[in-house]
Amino acid sequence: METAYESAKKRKQAAQKDIAEPVKKYRIKSLRKREELSGFLFISPWLIGFVALTLGPLLFSLYVSFTNYNITSKMDFVGTQNYHNMFFNDGLFWTSLWNTLYFVAFSVPLTTAGAILLAVLLNQKIPGIKVFRTIYYLPAVLSGVAVYLLWMQLLSPSTGLVNTALSWFGIKGPAWLFDPEWTKPALIVMKMWSVGGGMLLYLASLQGVSKAMYEAADIDGASAFRKFFHITLPMITPVIFFDIVTSLIGGFQIFQEAYVMTENGDGGPVNSLLFYNLHMWNKAFEVFDMGYASAMAWFLFVIVLVLTVINLKFGKHWVHYGGGDEK
Amino acid sequence: MSTRQHTPKFYETMSFRRKMKKSFVLFLLILGSIVILSPVWWMISTSLKTPGEIAQYPPSFMPESFQWSNYVKAWQTAPFTRWALNTIFITVCVVIGNVVVNSFVAYGFAKIRFRGKNLLFTLVLSTMLIPGFVMMIPQYMLFSKLHWINTYLPLIVPAFFGNAFFIFLLRQFFKTIPDEMIEAAKIDGANHFQIWWKLAMPLMKPAVITVAILSFNGAWNDFLGPLLYINDEKLYTLQIGLQTFKGTVQTQWHYLMSASVLVLLPVILIFFFFQRYFIEGSNITSGTKG
Questions:
Q1: Are B145 and B170 contained in the same domain?
Q2: Is there a single domain that holds both residue B41 and residue B92?
Q3: Residues contacting residue A315 through CB under 8 Å, at least 6 positions apart
Q4: Which of A65, A214, B14, B71 is the most exposed, having the fewest neighbouring CB atoms within 10 Å of its CB?
């Protein structure tokens, strides 16, 4: 143990030595090095996670997709056989792909348009607007099995709320989850209920559109319609773009709804709710054909990647980045 | 409408039209609110009805008599208490992991200078574009090799290795801390670790709470994870429990709905108490995307 005096003396000497140091650059360099080191230290949890939980498994599954891996015993290289079976010998693969594309093609545009419309309505100066925002956002936080059970009840053909409400207008509602023609629309209706989540994103961006633009348009006598299409929409295109990219990726993930709302995830009437992921799930965890399931996973990855790249390419043509905004 | 000049009638004046427009919007919003809230009302009212009343046609909107005992019976029909405790345990671990680790990583990306930072951050963002389902099968293979099946480790451990969206969210907030403040703390002898914990975290409390709430919701509602990794009924979470319960009570909707209300209750309570933090999360996402 050194006394306080001694350590103070030592520090003073060290400080003097520092000042006397002829090569000052060295110190700066070592400081920068320490900064670099702590930078890597701070991001290391993510870096390790990325390698161990994302990149590694992803590459391993690419290899597995060319084998007949079944977790316990087999792991022989079978070439492109899984992919061949997928495209040519598995009718359910095409059914599941079709079901998923159907769902994405309707749910993404409908929820996007719905969210924008709702955000415009909720961006007005009206008494109690905050209460309305809370109400419309509420369904977005409600998710999971409880909500699916609720919708099974709401969509019940005879005593459900949806068909009861339709009957007030003289419409005889369909059998929803029991009619293969109506199972996917049923899920889209359910998705529309929680459109408030996207709404909040648009609302935030609408509030960022400068008032001056609307005032200028008012002076020119522009109609509300024109203002919406020539000011509001272009100004929020970055958020529309973000929303479409993420909800497209999300749309391809549809699984839980179908799993819970059908009997033990069997795909519903005439396999009309057998989504891509449900089929992949059955292959992976019902029959443990990991090679085949990995091939399916990789094909899904490629589809989503291609769609995202197309999105990014086309985005350049219609997304408007306002001046002064942080990119 | 008309091009000729004339004194506007009362219904042509600006203030009248504005009032009309506002009343119309108000009307739409009230109508929409009823549509949005009716499923929630339906859930609560069904949970309080007798089976006979649920089956009757046309359905009633208000239960004839409130069957509060449905709640008690539903809860006792299955080990819901055990499942609730399991869910709470997992959720607490996940929230702690997400808050601590993501803010730590985000601080690194926001406030420390190192080579390759921008490239790495782009990599973080691009992982958001990988569909979760693509990762599910390879991760399952990894965790089964580690013998983590039927434990909570696959549900909890990944939360301690960062989440791209939360890192992005927190980085946007941390970036708003002035560099001068960090420099001043450094001159006072603080290292980055101390600055992160003692300066950045308290300063960015709202952002940290936002992440905590979003990850609470994610963990509480997680269905896929427990479905995949948990086989033992004693280890079930509420989501999987509810799914099993559906198989047990079949179409006894009064029980299904009362159990559903109870499972959703914590989420609803947190939403009403901490609404503004949900909005905070959306603001930062929409304001900086592009």
A1: yes
A2: no
A3: A241
A4: B14
**Residue of B31, B33, B36, B102 for testing the chain A interface, max A β-carbons within 10 Å:** B36
Reading the block at residue A28, the tokens are 């700066």
- Tell me the CA distances in angstroms from B245 to A165, A290, B53, B80, B250, one per residue in order: 29, 29, 21, 9, 8
The CATH number for B170's domain is 1.10.3720.10
Given this model, what pLDDT does residue A3 score?
57
- Tell me, what's the pLDDT at A327? 35
Q: What is the dihedral of CA B148, B154, B159, B160, to 10 degrees?
A: 10
Q: What is the pLDDT of residues A109-152, one digit of tens each?
A: 999 999 999 999 998 888 888 899 999 999 999 989 999 999 99
What single letter denotes the amino acid at residue A278?
Answer: L
- Whether residues B283 and A204 touch (CB distance < 8 A) is answered with yes
Q: Do B97 and B124 belong together in one domain?
A: yes
B128 with B261, same domain: the answer is: yes
Tokens linked to A162: 């949806």
Interface contact B221-A124, CB threshold 8 A: no
B-chain residues near A203 (CB < 8 A) = 282
Would you say residue B2 lies in a domain? no
Domain end, chosen from B23, B43, B70, is at B70
Q: Which residue range forms the structural domain that includes residue B112? A: 74-288
Q: Using CA atoms, how far apart are residues A208 and A28, in angstroms rounded to an integer?
A: 43
Quote the CA–CA distance of A57 and A68 in Å, as a whole number. 17
Number of domains in chain B: 2
Give the model confidence (pLDDT) of B169-192 as tens digits: 999 889 989 999 999 999 998 999
Q: What is the ipTM of this complex?
A: 0.88
In the stretch 31-70 of chain B, residues with CB closer than 8 A to chain A read: 32-33, 36-40, 42-43, 46, 54-59
Which of A12-16, A174-178, A312-316, A318-322 tops mean pLDDT?
A174-178
CB contacts < 8 Å between A and B, how many? 272
The reported pLDDT for the residue numbered A7 is 63
- Contact at 8 Å (CB) between B281 and B118? no
8 Å CB contact between B50 and B67: yes
pLDDT at B129 over 90: no
Instruction: Tell whether B57 and B185 lie within a shared domain.
Output: no
A 33-72 residues with CB < 8 A to B = 35-36, 38-43, 45-50, 52-54, 56-58, 60-61, 64, 69, 71
Residue A282 is classified by DSSP as I
Q: Say if CB B238 and CB B83 are below 8 A apart.
A: yes
Q: Are B89 and B188 contained in the same domain?
A: yes
Residue type, A299: F
- B196: which residues sit within 8 A by CB, 6+ positions away? A42, B103, B104, B107
Question: Measured on CA atoms in the order A309, A310, A313, A317, is the torsion positive or negative?
Answer: negative
